[in-house]
Amino acid sequence: MTEYKNSEKDNAQSSIDATIARILAADEANTNGKATRFVADQEHLNEDARQRRLSILGDRARELADSDAHTEHDGEQYDLFERRSLRRVEGLSTELEDVTEVEYRQLRLERVVLAGLWTEGTITEAEYSLRELAALAETAGSTVLDGFIQRRGKPDPGTFFGSGKAVEIKEAVAELGADTVIVDSELAPSQRRGLEDIVKVKVIDRTGLILDIFAQHAKSREGKAQVELAQMEYMLPRLRGWGESLSRQAGGRVGAAGGGIGSRGPGETKIELDRRRINQRMAKLRREIAGMKPARDAKRANRKRNAVPSVAIAGYTNAGKSSLLNRLTDAGVLVENALFATLDPTTRKAVTPDGIGYTLSDTVGFVRQLPTQLVEAFRSTLEEVADADLILHVVDASHPEPESQIAAVRKVLAEVDAHEVDEIIVLNKADAAESHVIDRIRRREPHAIVVSAHTGQGIDELKQLIRDSIPRPTVPLQLLVPYADGEVVSRLHAEDAEILSTDYQEEGTRIHVLVRPSLAAELSQYQVED
Ligand SMILES: Nc1nc2c(ncn2[C@@H]2O[C@H](COP(=O)(O)OP(=O)(O)OP(=O)(O)O)[C@@H](O)[C@H]2O)c(=O)[nH]1
Ligand SMILES: [Mg+2]
């Protein structure tokens, strides 16, 4: 309660806080567990409140739709044009061709109502989570009509929300003409069915929504296979939930007849057939993904052999990772004010201000409650982060509370064993951030730097910091390179070597240089005494 009062002081004018105030007032009036509508009741709506109702979630949605500011560092953004011209075709993107009659839902989200439980933390956190869900829904291509938060100790085992709340959601769905309810958690299969029976439209959970976005955005063969595998993994237990009673019947009969080989055929239910086909498909996908690994490993091994230091850009979705890559290397990678714009990792060559080469990789963004199926499916991609010499952990400092995003990212990094890699916290979007947020995080994170990929603020310092943080060539050599072998000199200039001095002598170029051990061996023939 006191936490809320503080934030009210900071931001007294905002419509969100007005909403929160209403929620809290209603919450105090109601006993704990009673439903709280996220917006004012219809009969109490004056014109002002009506406007506010439209803007509570719409703010985020509009932000997503309108502001796609690009800088000249973002290049031509061909991918963005392509993505815009490839907007979703109903029902196609998430269809699973190989699987018939499965309970898998084609998401086809159009007009949606959001609903979340507030079980712990402050109402402000519950609010952020719902706003993020709105942004996710927008990214998936749907229109968000309304949102609800219910204060409740723990979810109802049957219907997730309390029955009163569920009825209220149903009324809003009918009133607004929504076709989908999106719940801000992962639902048990039975809870989803229970809730669907009440609200009478399709119910999707956060995991299903994130999987849908990934399915829409995956572009490379590997990315597509990874997402499909994750979708299947998500689907399988839900399929079981649906078919449980059927399977039990068949199993019972098999059991009574003594069971065993041959007795399964006729008694086999459709659900088991589907499950088997999904398992087969998953095994095939796993093989395919494993098959793609050698190429990736070879690339990585090549980088390792050349001992090129690698820097991975990681961070919460929409933090500005791709913008930062573009700013540092002019790579022209897709930048979009949407969640999960980047799914296929891009690696670019970069050089430090003093000419040391390194690779810089953009990665898939993280999100709170990133489906575990996705972490698993993207493991090979994420492992590259674990392999890096340095992680630039990009944080959207214009968010009022980036701490929870930092925590969510570190959780995923730990899952892929990347938590021991050196990390620089890059507080991005400084141009749009509140200074008290930046100060607060800098106090907590000594290894932080403030930048703006848009204005270029702090970018030179960041480049210096990268220079100081990556492994540097250490082997000192005195070389005398005949003028006929000029390409060796240019290679030293282009590659990973730190040239300390150059002297043009009669027999050739005399160079004092620091190189990596691998290169030192190759250059032995040119070595001379000091
Ligand atoms: N104001 C401001 N906006 C920024 C800055 N950097 C990035 N943005 C905006 O933030 C949005 C997301 O940028 P991206 O670079 O696509 O973010 P990302 O982290 O790669 O996102 P995903 O790939 O979706 O995870 C875009 O609308 C950018 O224009 C910045 O320094 N200042
Ligand atoms: Mg990106």
Description:
The chain is an alpha/beta fold and 530 residues long. It has four domains: 2-67 and 98-215, GTPase HflX, N-terminal domain (Rossmann fold, 3-Layer(aba) Sandwich), CATH 3.40.50; 218-290; 307-469, P-loop containing nucleotide triphosphate hydrolases (Rossmann fold, 3-Layer(aba) Sandwich); 475-526, Alpha-Beta Plaits (2-Layer Sandwich), CATH 3.30.70. It has helices at 2-10, 15-29, 47-56, 58-66, 78-85, 123-139, 163-176, 189-199, 206-217, 221-256, 264-267, 270-305, 321-329, 372-377, 379-387, 403-415, 435-444, 459-469, 486-494, 517-522, and strands at 111-118, 143-151, 180-183, 202-205, 310-315, 346-351, 357-362, 390-396, 422-428, 448-450, 475-482, 498-504, 508-515. The protein has a six-stranded mixed sheet, with helices on both faces. Strand 12 (498-504) and strand 13 form a beta hairpin. Helix 10 packs antiparallel against helix 12. The longest helix is centred in the middle third of the chain and has 36 residues, at 221-256. The termini are far apart. Mean pLDDT is 74; it is low at 1-67, 83-107 and 240-267. Guanosine-5'-triphosphate binds at residues 67-69, 315, 317-323, 335-337, 339-342, 365, 428-429, 431-432, 452-454. Magnesium ion is lined by residues 321-322, 341-342, 362.
Structure, briefly:
The chain has 530 residues and is α/β, with parallel strands linked by helices. It is built from 20 helices and 13 strands. It has helices at 2-10, 15-29, 47-56, 58-66, 78-85, 123-139, 163-176, 189-199, 206-217, 221-256, 264-267, 270-305, 321-329, 372-377, 379-387, 403-415, 435-444, 459-469, 486-494, 517-522; strands at residues 111-118, 143-151, 180-183, 202-205, 310-315, 346-351, 357-362, 390-396, 422-428, 448-450, 475-482, 498-504, 508-515.
